[in-house]
């Protein structure tokens, strides 16, 4: 299969609330796909159902040519959840060591790996501090560093830059670009429309469906506007009128 992620007619409801009507979505090798949509649209639910953390009510999900859910391939995926799952009483370094071991990173590689990911998120000088002393933004950065451990083939990042200041945000996007160019596939959700401009393709989730899916440039052309923010607003407007 040529797609790294292939979601086919995924449906999901919570009790009577239909969150995902029919999601068809792909992520190709070596691209950054931005999944955008208003708060509560179901972006996290798309991610959780594809990973098998929530059970889909219908449809199929394939990741790295494997039918999901499948625990065996989780080691090839770097997942950063929307809320940080960190060991607060341990140092950042101990957290990284723990997750590196879970990913099967060898003892010989451990120090290099931790130095590498800590540098990307600018935490090199705070690694020995306890996570409970970290700010919200530092915790997000640590979660991102954990997702980057082991150079996964697929990165799934749920709102990775919340609480991160503009300079570091820029640096992180540069790093994502480097990873993409090296062949990593990246699925990222964001509220920040200016970040959506930096992706290769934007999928717009609204009312349980993907209502637009194209490069930022093509979407701007299609909607005759100059930014993804305006695409988003126009798409929302025309959906309301339907
Ligand atoms: N476990 C759950 N049980 C019941 N309802 C849920 C559950 N998880 C999500 N929902 C509901 O599903 C909808 C979509 O939630 P989801 O977190 O996927 O949205 P989102 O697009 O990621 O939002 P945000 O951008 O605010 O994080 C919301 O209405 C939410 O309340």
UniProtKB/TrEMBL annotation:
Residues annotated as domain ABC transporter: 5-232
GO terms assigned for molecular function: ATP binding; ATP hydrolysis activity
Keywords: ATP-binding, Nucleotide-binding
Organism classification: Bacteria, Bacillati, Bacillota, Bacilli, Lactobacillales
InterPro entries xref list: AAA+_ATPase, ABC_transporter-like_ATP-bd, ABC_transporter-like_CS, P-loop_NTPase
PROSITE patterns: ABC_TRANSPORTER_1, ABC_TRANSPORTER_2
Pfam families found in the cross-reference section: ABC_tran
Protein name: ABC transporter ATP-binding protein
Source domain of life: Bacteria
Matches recorded under SUPFAM superfamilies: P-loop containing nucleoside triphosphate hydrolases
Gene3D superfamilies attached to this UniProt entry: P-loop containing nucleotide triphosphate hydrolases
């Amino acid at each position: 299969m040529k797609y790294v992620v292939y979601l086919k007619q995924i449906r999901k409801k919570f009790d009577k609330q239909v969150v995902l009507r029919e999601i068809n979505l792909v992520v190709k090798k070596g691209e950054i796909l931005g999944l955008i949509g208003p708060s509560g649209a179901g972006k996290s639910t798309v991610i959780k159902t594809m990973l098998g953390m929530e059970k889909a009510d219908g449809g199929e999900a394939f990741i790295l040519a494997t039918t999901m859910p499948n625990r065996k391939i989780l080691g090839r995926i770097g997942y950063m959840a929307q809320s940080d799952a960190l060991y607060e009483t341990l140092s950042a370094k101990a957290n990284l060591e723990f997750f590196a071991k879970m990913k099967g990173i060898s003892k010989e590689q451990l120090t290099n790996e931790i130095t590498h990911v800590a540098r990307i998120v600018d935490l090199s000088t705070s690694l020995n501090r306890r996570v409970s002393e970290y700010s919200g933004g530092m915790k997000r950065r640590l979660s991102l560093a954990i997702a980057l451990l082991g150079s996964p083939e697929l990165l799934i990042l749920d709102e990775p830059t919340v609480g991160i200041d503009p300079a570091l945000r820029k640096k992180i996007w540069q790093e994502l670009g480097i990873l993409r160019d090296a062949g990593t596939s990246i699925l990222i959700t964001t509220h920040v429309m200016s970040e959506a401009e930096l992706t290769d393709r934007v999928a717009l989730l609204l009312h349980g469906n993907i209502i637009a899916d194209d490069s930022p440039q093509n979407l701007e052309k299609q909607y005759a506007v100059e930014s993804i923010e305006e695409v988003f607003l126009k798409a929302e407007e025309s959906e309301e009128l339907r």
